[in-house]
Amino acid sequence: MDFRIAAGLAFVGLLTVGPTAGHAEGTFSAPTWGQLSTQQKEILQPFERDWDSLEPERRERWLVIAQKYPSLSRAQQRRIQNRMQHWASLTPQQRAEAKEIFKQIQHLPKDKRREILQKWLEYEQFPPELKDALRDARTRHP
Amino acid sequence: MNEHEVGARVAQYLDDTVADLDPRILRRLQTARESAVVRAREREAAGRIGWSSGGAHLSGHSRFGAAKILVPATALLVALVGIYVWQESMFPPETEELELLADELPLNAYLDKGFHQWISASLQD
């Protein structure tokens, strides 16, 4: 019986080590705007005014994004620049919902993803009443 | 901490993280669990036969039986941790956010509930 308890404790240890290790970067304090490098400031320029008021966890996350940013295509970099501030202004719930839809779309085959993009272009042309009716339907049956 | 408390902590942890798992991973976990339950039942039945015929070797048999349960259980747990680590490496939160922001589909498309309704059939295919 003692052996089983020890094994159980070891497993709990294993489970708790994973997530903790994943958030290891959360242990240092996130830098202020003044502490960022010139390159980081250029990439994160849309946050210049609000950077120091962002939660440390979000600042760290943006720093990781800034680190990967140079490896992206110019078109992707432009999209990110245009969307950064809008994304940062969303509530955590809105961001979570957006990420959920993103994940669902990413799991679709490539031709289906292209179809979704086409559907967005069609949706943009819908009259406001039709869009409102669709939003109502979504709210009633999420 | 007793055995029940350890079990409760494990269950709590799994409950807290299960909502974030990919549906395909959930299906694989369900299949693995069902196989483990079937094997456990078979072992239990075999154990009962052993008990009824080998009372003199009860202590040794019991220790062997515990090992027989622990080995596959540990393998399953290691697999669960492996799946968790794999999923984190495939979709770390930072990369997901970066990919979403860099995506061809504009941000408003991910925020508009009317659009989500409009594509709901495509998402369920």
What do these coordinates show?
- The complex is a heterodimer of chains A (142) and B (125).
- With 142 residues, chain A is mainly α.
- Chain A has a domain at 92-142.
- Chain A has helices at 2-22, 38-43, 56-68, 74-88, 92-106, 110-124, 128-140.
- The longest helix of chain A has 21 residues, at 2-22.
- Residues 12-27 of chain A have low confidence and may be disordered.
- Chain B is mainly alpha-helical.
- Chain B folds into 2 domains: 3-80; 92-125, no CATH class.
- In chain B, 85% of the residues lie in helices and 0% in strands.
- Chain B is built from 7 helices and no strands.
- Chain B has helices at residues 3-18, 23-53, 58-90, 93-102, 107-111, 113-118, 120-124.
- In chain B, α2 (23-53) runs antiparallel to α3.
- Chain B is elongated.
- Chain B starts with a helix and ends with a helix.
- At the A-B interface, α1, α3, α4, α5 and α6 of A face α1, α3, α4, α5 and α6 of B.
From the helix content, strand content and strand pairing of chain A, which structural class follows? mainly alpha
The domain tally of chain B reads 2
Q: What summary fits the major beta sheet of chain A?
A: none
What is the number of helices of chain B? 7
- Strand/helix succession of chain A: HHHHHHH
Query: What amount of the residues of chain A lies in strands?
Result: under 5%
User: Compute the gyration radius of chain A: what is it?
Assistant: 21 Å
Helix content of chain B: over 70%
The CA-CA distance between the termini of chain B, in Å, is 46 Å
